[in-house]
Amino acid sequence: MTYVVTENCINCKFTDCVEVCPVDCFYEGENTLVIHPDECIDCGVCEPECPADAIRPDTEDGMEKWVELNGKYAEAWPVITEKKDPMPAADDWNGKEGKLALLSDAPAE
C-alpha cells in the first residue's frame, strides 16, 4: 500500500502534510503536490494533516490513475520538505470537483 495525492489538492496545495512525512516523499508542482509511491512507507501520518482531504490510500477504489499520476510527477518535480503558504485561492478551490483538467505539468518554481 501507498498513499497518493488526489484531485482536491489541485489549486489548493496545502503543505501541512510535508512537515510530518518521515521520508520526504512529497514533490511539488506548480499547482499541486504528489507522493512518490516507491518512497512512501505507508505510515499514514500525512493523511489526517491534509485540510483538503486530498491524500488517500491506494487501496481505495479508483486510485490506480492517481498512483500513476503521482509516480509520473514525483520523478519530474522537486522534493518539498517544508510547509509553505497554500495557493492564494486555496479555500475557494477546496472541495470543487473537476479540477484534474487544471493540473499543471510544470514543476514548482
Which secondary structure elements does this structure contain, and how are they paired or packed?
Layout lengths: L2 E3 L10 H5 L5 E3 L4 E3 L19 E3 L6 H11 L15 H4 L16
Antiparallel strand pairs: 1-4, 2-3
Structure notes:
- By secondary structure, the chain is an alpha+beta fold.
- The protein has 3 helices and 4 strands.
- The chain has helices at 16-20, 64-74, 90-93, and strands at 3-5, 26-28, 33-35, 55-57.
- The strands form 2 sheets. Strands 1-4 form a two-stranded antiparallel ribbon.
- A hairpin with a 4-residue loop joins β2 and β3.
Q: Could you give the count of β-strands?
A: 4
What separation lies between the terminal Cα atoms? 30 Å
Instruction: Find the structural class using helix and strand composition.
Output: alpha+beta
Strand content: 5-15%
Order of strands across the widest beta sheet?
1-4
Overall residue-averaged pLDDT value: 97
Gyration radius, in Å = 12 Å
- Biggest β-sheet: count, sense, barrel? 2 strands, antiparallel
* H/I helix tally: 3
Give me the strand/helix succession: EHEEEHH
- Proportion of helical residues: 10-25%
Q: Give the CA-based shape.
A: globular
Low-confidence parts, pLDDT < 50 over ≥5 residues? none
